[in-house]
Design brief:
Length: 76
């Protein structure tokens, strides 16, 4: 009888641990998504253009296509 009680307790603990891991994983994924949005080209007043069309400062912020750069006009 005691082994059965230990097994049930272990299953309850494992279930609770799984729920905690899922919640922590969700929070980490959500915060990394927010970080990516705050460091994108558009959120830093940049514009994705071809490198030859940029009159401002070229930046390597994410969010632009492969053949484009993030152009930040410092006067704006």
């Amino acid at each position: 009888m005691q082994k059965k009680a230990i097994a049930v307790n272990m299953m309850i603990l494992l279930t609770l641990a799984l729920i905690v891991f899922i919640i922590v994983g969700f929070l980490i994924a959500r915060s990394s998504s927010t970080y990516t949005k705050s460091t994108s080209c558009e959120s830093n007043n940049g514009k994705c253009v071809k490198a030859t069309e940029c009159n401002g400062k070229n930046s390597f912020l994410p969010g632009c296509k492969e053949d484009e750069v993030c152009c930040i006009n410092e006067g704006e």
